């Protein structure tokens, strides 16, 4: 097994995004059919990232594990009610940054790209600031394309957490698990997917939030949130037929981030086709923001493990003849989280398959670790989704948490199940929101 590769896959922590439009002229996505364009994803800790602090690889891993824990806390809060999903987003722990522009002034900024939220919002001027910031502010009064939305309009009602202000404009309030918040006015604006080499693609009339009152532990270098969830007002949903409801991404392994960029694709460029493609349906739930898949179980070294056996009593019985676990697929969460019973089964199977003696995690966060040496043989793990068997190599299931130490990149959690970014590396992961499916294709993501 190519275990050396594991030490070259610092999972994606946070990525800055630059857009490369596949056309030499200005484009209006609203008037285009299935337009194809791609996005370069730059690792948060790469030399060109605004977050580059010259951290060691293992320091990056430690920070990433803490972010993963914070991200899970958000999903726990959101799962308490469908309304909570709509009114809470995570700002400080997002995994990706997206470079874009807005308005007739072509105001350029970085925002956190989040598949776990819907509303796109940006910090606006004048603003009340109660935290450090390096990011500039957007002044909507200087933009000719900016429009305020009336509070009694259909557009206003489509925004979760919206309400009428005293002057009759549509306002929003998004709350965070750490008591951070953003409050402002809902409007429409032209969003530009910017490119330094080519003309930008233009998305007119995008519903977004202009945040005038923001408090909490937001990122210093990001100006807001780009909502890429499954809800009605997410940027992906508002693009609609112009991208055919399709987007995909391909996350490069670890230290490859210094040489190669990950990629995100939209429209025709987002198609996932080929002999090795495996596809699973997105499970419909009341929490439309999140993308849920049906996980039936795992195989470890050829041994099948069901999430729920025939004696299990679970509210997931209604998802089919075989009991399935609704699991959120999320590129913003590092690790994969499973219910305690399922995690215990998986951990025991890995212990039985690996002949070496387990050791402690230097980060004191992961449960099962081994000392790396030439004799260490890690098993192949297969994730069994509805209609799809996804073969995970050791680089998808183990993380280097210290010199010569590899740890299982799974943790138990009885409140939320998440299929995280480490498990998705070196796969082309495609979302088809029209067909309600997610497809996977084994891919060398270092190759364009």
From TrEMBL:
One record GO biological process: proteolysis
Limits of the Peptidase A1 domain: 96-441
GO cellular component terms, semicolon-separated: extracellular region
Keywords: Aspartyl protease, Glycoprotein, Hydrolase, Protease, Secreted, Signal
Signal peptide interval: 1-16
A matching Pfam family: TAXi_N
UniProt superkingdom: Eukaryota
Chief site of localization: secreted
A single GO molecular function term of this UniProt record: aspartic-type endopeptidase activity
Localization per record: Secreted
Gene3D superfamilies for the chain: Acid Proteases (2.40.70.10)
InterPro entries, per database record: Aspartic_peptidase_AS (IPR001969), Pepsin-like_plant (IPR034161), PEPTIDASE_A1 (IPR033121), Peptidase_aspartic_dom_sf (IPR021109), Plant_Aspart_Prot_A1 (IPR051708), TAXi_C (IPR032799), TAXi_N (IPR032861)
Family: Belongs to the peptidase A1 family.
Protein known as: Aspartic proteinase
Gene source species: Actinidia chinensis var. chinensis
